Amino acid sequence: MLTQQELNEYSGFDIIGDIHGCAKTLVKLLQKLGYRFINGCYRHSSRVVVYLGDIVDRGPHIREALEIVHSMVERKAAVCIMGNHEYNAVSYCTPAPEGLGRRYLREHNAHHNRLIGETLEQFAAYPVEWREYIEWFTTLPLFYETDSFRVVHACWDQALIDQYRDTYHCNRVNSEFIVKSVDRQSFEGRLMDRLTRGTDIPLPEERVITSKDGFQRRFFRTKFWAQSPKTYGDVAFQPDPLPKDLVDRPLSDLEKSNLICYPKGERPVFIGHYWLQGKPKPVTSNIACLDYSAVKYGRLAAYRYDREPVLDASKFMWVYVDPPEWREPEAE
Ligand SMILES: [Mn+2]
């Protein structure tokens, strides 16, 4: 992995959000950003890519997307952190220790099978390669920071990150951590959940929202930067709207105490994860989300970061995901 000193030699950082198997669009975005394929990977003479995780699942060219990202990370042309989908892949494919009551760390139920289905299908003929990627995922950092910015897949929680550093003395996971994290109540489980999935609030009165991708949700995703929020509407941050009658519902003291707030004066943090739509722009002056729903014909988005303390809407770049990303490659 790139050291801090090596990173500082680059003039800037191109931070790229959730790819989800849209490899053709990724190539277009890298080219638009000035990267060229030289000596085994895409690279730039003076810039480096930071991938925010969620390379796998859902899209049509997952194996190709992994090849592009992995080759860049190997050759120090990029850094890649872990998304919840890489974590899911590792735990889905890792046999459980005895006594857990199931064969794999992540249960093979209908919901989980469906989420990872595209990935396993596309790797069906390449089992050795898939095994190597699983081993690679097991070593990915959960968060990353330099003197000027921070990245995490879903939520920067300083208290948990500090505790992690005190315990593990690094920012990467390992197989022991992965096994412990299966228990959602453990420190490892809470950290993994918080950093790769963010904060959320359970819906009251056992209500359910059916999300746009057809899943039933019993909670809604919340901001980790809301300053003294009062209602559900003040903290909701997800593509599926809250039911109208819940928007003005006051947050209880318990709900408030479970929220966190990334301070306004802190260095910028970049996240993916949230399926945003529309024209990319910063979420706040020091938070930018780069997940613009690429895999649902949205945009694959990047932010060209040059160490500025205040984020700027003009520094987003993107490529629209065309239907051809989804068609079989034509015979050439
Ligand atoms: Mn994602």
Question: How would you portray this structure in words?
Answer:
The protein is built from 11 helices and 16 strands. The protein is of the alpha/beta class and 332 residues long. The chain has a single domain (7-198, 264-326), classed as Metallo-dependent phosphatases (Purple Acid Phosphatase, chain A, domain 2, 4-Layer Sandwich). The longest helix has 13 residues, at 62-74. The two termini are 37 Å apart. Manganese (II) ion is lined by residues 18, 54, 83, 272-273, 291.
List keywords for this structure.
globular; binds manganese (II) ion; 332 residues; 16 strands; four-stranded mixed β-sheet; Metallo-depent_PP-like
Write the layout of secondary structure elements.
Elements: H1 4-8, E1 12-16, H2 23-32, E2 36-38, E3 41-43, E4 47-51, H3 62-74, E5 78-80, H4 84-93, H5 110-122, H6 127-137, E6 143-145, E7 150-152, H7 158-168, H8 175-181, H9 187-197, E8 199-202, E9 209-210, E10 216-217, E11 219-222, H10 232-235, H11 253-258, E12 269-271, E13 287-289, E14 291-292, E15 299-305, E16 316-320
Helix pairs in contact: 2-3, 8-9
The structure holds manganese (II) ion.
